[in-house]
# Entry
Amino acid sequence: MKSTRLVIKVGSALIAPDENGCSTKFMKPIAAFINTLRANGTEVILVSSGAVAAAKGMFNSPTFNQIERRKAQAAAGQTNMISMWSEMLAMPCAQMLMTHQDLSNIGRFQSIRKTLDELLTEGILPIVNENDSVSTKQSRVGDNDNLSAMIATAANADTLILCSDIDGLYTAPPASSPDARKLSIVKSITDDIRAMAGDVNSSMGTGGMITKIQAVEKAASSGVTTYLINGFDEDAFTQLLNGNNPGTLFEPSVKPLSDPEHYWRHTAPTAGTIVVDSGKSTVDKGALEVEPLLDENRIKTIQGDFNVGDTIEVHTSAGLKIAKGVSNYSSCTLKLLQRIDLDAIITPLSAEQLINPAEGALFQ
Ligand code: GLU
# Structure
């Protein structure tokens, strides 16, 4: 593995496996890996989960409010986690806590980018986590897999390492499918690859294979190579340092998106979704590629409450995401038009009419 600037994401199960304080057991080999990378001239950013898991043992009284409890645990466990990393890492560390709102605001995104640059130039290791104690359902990223991909984009990193509890992406769950095969290289994220992620969730953190694949997609479209490795296996880190691939390597997109394109596809928060009928009984992806616009499509349902100027997504009734951008209509207006059945007004409705094409992305 050759990298100039790398982001490594470490999940809760590696930091606080007993959910009672941080443990050096798995952190130590990861810290040694980071120390070696730095000594070899690679700039590293660590995205570390584990604050909530580390603090669980500190909270003993019963609670009815799990959300408030989790926010308090995030605050209490964060100091424990940062001090453990600082002890094991051979360079000064800096803490950066952020929410989705910070990353989706262009001014704050630029500010995060500059701070990361400044820290790395000074040889200081940024340790990033979601600011769970202040975030709300609407303002959070929700998982550190996606957060790490956003950080890789913000930092212009070339490599992202996702440390998992499995040594790569398998064609099927290896525990229940004897024929399951590990994929060593994935060139691009297709529907088949998404299906392999299934709905497997980790018991401790918030991610699972789905959030890892979402992260890979974000990272790849920024030109970042992602390795999915088993963070519990010390040998995986040795293999990476020796130039081998111990897990699954996801290749970066051959045509990385510009910052604004990436923002619209992967970062802009969505206030609602419009589901359109493609005009055919089944969605023919080939046809959508040839005719990327939504001409002839009709609105089926309007989900969420949004105003003119809010970001919305357009999906087909088969669940295919076809566009995302700033809405030219409020959900109220669209619902009213639907109710009084003014088909003549809203049909045919093109993507350009629904969303502002200058501020959005068309998915083909
Ligand atoms: N930010 C959470 C924590 O520090 C973890 C989120 C995740 O597991 O992805 O505990």
